[in-house]
Amino acid sequence: MATAFTPCHVGKNCHPECGAAIVNQVNLELYASYVYMSMACYFDREDVALKHFNLFFLRQSNKEREHAEHLLGLQNQRACNLHLHNIPKPEEDNWGSSLRVLECALHLAKRVQQSLLSLHQVATEKHGHVCNFLKHHYVQEQAMFIQELGDHITNLHKLAAQEESLAESLSDKLSLGDSKN
């Protein structure tokens, strides 16, 4: 995914570097939402039919979209003009297995976390309000999501049955059915 963005045109309350980093984060949050929606649709397919995986990724897709909306609102409060960019399509269409999906989701979640930490660093130096907003609303939540994905991956590895579909079905019911995400 391309991550080169033009900085926002700066209003009196918007530091250019901070504004550009927020736009960058918005784009990544929207991309993550798109990918998680693709994952949810994969699990909702008739030939896959794993309801709890579907719901897990639908909820995460909605959360990522909400994060983007909140960051856009923050940009508007800071008097920045927004210059949004195209959101690329997910790199996968046919995800293959629940383990592969969870591993891809973990990789993406870590990418979002790193971007959040970078934005937090810029905000620490340039804009305290944004820094506090991120710290209290996103950084911890993202770390918890990464931990949850890691736990689900561990559970699937532990369930390594003769048939992967048995492990997927058990994991779908036993761990994702009670997911807090």
Write up this protein.
There is one protein chain. With 181 residues, this protein is mainly alpha-helical. It contains five helices and no strands. It has one domain: Ferritin, core subunit, four-helix bundle (Ferritin, Up-down Bundle). It is 70% helix and 0% strand.
Secondary structure elements and pairings:
Blueprint lengths: L15 H29 L6 H27 L20 H29 L1 H31 L5 H11 L7
Helix pairs in contact: 1-2, 1-3, 3-4
Subcellular location: Cytoplasmic vesicle, Autophagosome; Lysosome
Protein name: Ferritin
Family: Belongs to the ferritin family.
List its traits.
Ferritin, mainly alpha, 181 residues, 70% helix, 5 helices
What is the straight-line distance between the termini?
25 Å
The count of strands amounts to 0
Q: What's the order of the H and E elements?
A: HHHHH
Summarize the biggest pleated sheet.
none
Keywords: Iron, Iron storage, Lysosome, Metal-binding, Oxidoreductase
Subcellular location: Cytoplasmic vesicle, Autophagosome; Lysosome
Family: Belongs to the ferritin family.
Protein name: Ferritin
